[in-house]
Structures are given as structure tokens and as C-alpha cells.
Design a protein that fits this description.
about 160 residues; alpha/beta; 5-stranded parallel beta sheet; two-stranded antiparallel ribbon; 4 helices
Length: about 160
């Protein structure tokens, strides 16, 4: 069991909305999604306040729509700032996993895992296996968690038997 900090959500991670990344001004987002003074302060304060915990991960955000460059800047800043080098993950829309995760896998970033989401319960196992194996093949195995499975209306059933 560990603390799972979702540092932002799709509604406030940048100036885009939804999986289609529709450009729209979002006054609540920090630095328009870039690693600016507001985002650095926010990340630094979260790390200072909670980083002493033994088991936690820093999740860049639920259904994250930042660009790869914005994600990498945030990953690097968290990695440099967290003295304990906790797990750093990202969560994206189910249909964008290949695009988002492939750009960050292996030595392409300091990301140490992913936080998966799917739309169909039967996809849970094979998606976990896919990213465990893909990351192992790069020589930098990821911690793969599944934190949003099934439809928004039903989630994961307690007993599939």
C-alpha cells in the first residue's frame, strides 16, 4: 500500500481539454502546463510536505494532456527535487497510452512507471503485461499500476467469478 499523489487532473493540467486536446484557456492550470514558477513551487511544496513518507508515487496527473516536453520537464524537476527518488508515473486516456508512454519509456525519460486506465474490464490484465514487458525490454522496468479500470459508470466489479 502506498500514497498515490495525482498532482493534477485533465481539467487543470494545461490549456487543453479532453483526449482531443481542444485548446481552451484554463485559468486554474499552472503556467499553461509548462514548468514555470507556479508549477515548480507547487511540486516543491508537495515534495517537501509529503516526500518523507516511505511508500508513495508522484503521478503527473489523471488523464494528463500535457505535451511530452512538458511532461519530461516536470518528471526531471520532480526527480531532481525529491531527495528520496520516489516512483514517478503518468496516467493518460486509454486510447493515448501508446503515444504517451512510448515517448517516455526507457532512457527517453526518468519516468519510473505508469498508472493505467481502461474502458473495458477484460483489458486490465493484458494492458499491465504489455507495459511491464515493454519497459523490461528497455532495461528500465516500470512499476505498472492500474488505478482506473472499467467504465466510469461501473468501475471494477468486486468479483468477476
Amino acid at each position: 500500500m502506498y500514497l498515490h499523489f495525482k498532482m493534477q487532473e485533465t481539467e487543470n493540467d494545461d490549456n487543453h481539454r479532453g483526449p482531443q486536446r481542444v485548446k481552451k484557456a484554463v485559468p486554474e492550470c499552472l503556467d499553461n502546463g509548462d514548468l514555470g514558477i507556479e508549477r515548480k513551487l507547487y511540486c516543491r511544496e508537495l515534495i517537501a510536505r509529503f516526500g518523507h513518507n516511505l511508500a508513495l508515487n508522484w503521478n503527473l496527473g489523471e488523464e494528463n494532456t500535457q505535451t511530452t516536453g512538458q511532461q519530461q520537464a516536470m518528471i526531471d524537476f520532480i526527480h531532481q527535487t525529491d531527495p528520496y527518488h520516489h516512483n514517478i508515473v503518468v496516467h493518460t486516456f486509454p486510447e493515448q497510452q501508446d503515444e504517451v508512454y512510448e515517448a517516455l519509456i526507457g532512457d527517453r525519460s526518468k519516468l519510473t512507471g505508469v498508472s493505467l486506465q481502461n474502458s473495458h474490464i477484460q483489458d486490465t490484465h493484458w494492458q499491465v503485461v504489455k507495459w511491464v514487458q515493454a519497459s523490461q525490454q528497455t532495461g528500465r522496468p516500470w512499476v505498472v499500476a492500474f488505478d482506473e479500470s472499467g467504465s466510469a459508470a461501473h468501475g471494477q466489479c468486486p468479483d468477476l467469478g
